[in-house]
Description:
Elements: H1 2-16, H2 20-43, H3 45-50, H4 53-59, H5 66-98, H6 102-106, H7 112-144, H8 152-170, H9 173-182, H10 187-205, H11 216-220, H12 233-256
Amino acid sequence: MRKIAIAIKVEYLKIKSSKIFWITLFLFILIPIMMGLMIYIVRHPEISAKLGIIGAKASLFGNADGPAYMGLVIQAIASVGLIGYGFVTSWMFGSEHTQHTMKDILALPVSRNHIVLAKFFIVICWSILLSFVMIISALIICYLMNLSGFTATNLKESISTFAITALMTILLCSPVAFLAGYGRGLVAPLGFIFVTMIMAQFVALSGLGAYFPWSIPGLNTAPEGTEGMKLLPVSYVILTLTFIGGYWATQFWWNHADHH
């Protein structure tokens, strides 16, 4: 445990000395604000008419109440979360190559298994913190905009759906970690994130989203009863196996790749 604690402390100090952490926090606060702006435009049709295409898109959101706003935030965590958590993972694992610190971190008196475990621990904690900041920001915006329509039941359901969707999306970070090492940088994992995000949309539309890991968080946000958008028990198994497979591949690469 002591060696794992040392590895976690090293990763923590790395984040502390970087601006990336604060940038990601800012972006996850900005997303609910942008969603609130859309709701504000829907509530004020006179503004919508002056904003052209932005106003037209905002009008597509329909209701301008609290549940509608939370629905937008929940949908955002499935797509934006994939990018945000994926970027955090890419940076944690890929920056060792881009900043040429790989040899330094391997020189620590800590096994490579513990280093990888510490990095995943930081990635998961960082991603959970971003999700927490996002939902708190959303609730504050609901209060400031006086968005109505909430009951204790639907508010609890919205927060629960948000949390489950966020955790599902975080599970998709392990293949990104492997690619950050295998590609020795940020290009390969970031490219992978965008490709899987696009594929998730097409696979979900084909009705096979329950079997495709990157479509599963999005399906969790679909309204109940939507045809072809229902999660199956096997979906949770696929998601768990995706995380385990990515974690194992990352550990294997760190232990067997030539780092010289």
